[in-house]
Amino acid sequence: MMPEEKVAIAVQVVYAEPGSVWRADLQLPAGATVGQAIQASGFSRLFPDYPSDAPALGIYGQACGADRILADGDRIEIYRPLTFDPMESRQRRALHRKAFMTKPRNRPKRRKAKIAAGLLEP
């Protein structure tokens, strides 16, 4: 006896904004792609300001493309575009830490080296 194939899969499409989360529960035919799920959810109609030329997508936190085949129970996440450059942000944090460093840096003890060179008495 062969197992029955599912003819429909249940997926969620999720988009988080600061302060709110939008979610759409969908029933799609087996073999549907991420792009088809985004289109079926009506996301572009509800969020016309989102840059839809190449949305950043993922399934449970793992980045994927719009052509990925969905499995039953997948949660498709639409990511917001970055509003800052991550490299610039890291550089600012490093400068901030350096400016407010209160403890002196640990320096190696040079006494043993001077004793070995004969400059100091042991």
From TrEMBL:
Which SUPFAM superfamilies does the UniProt record give? MoaD/ThiS
Q: Which domain of life is it from?
A: Bacteria
Span list, region Disordered = 103-122
Q: Where is the composition biased (Basic residues)?
A: 103-114
Mention any Pfam family matching this sequence. Ub-RnfH
Q: Which InterPro entries match?
A: Mopterin_synth/thiamin_S_b (IPR016155), RnfH (IPR005346), RnfH_sf (IPR037021)
Q: Which PANTHER family match?
A: UPF0125 PROTEIN RATB
Q: Which HAMAP family match?
A: UPF0125_RnfH
Q: Which family does it belong to?
A: Belongs to the UPF0125 (RnfH) family.
The protein's name is UPF0125 protein SAMN04488135_105257
Q: Which organism is it from?
A: Pollutimonas bauzanensis
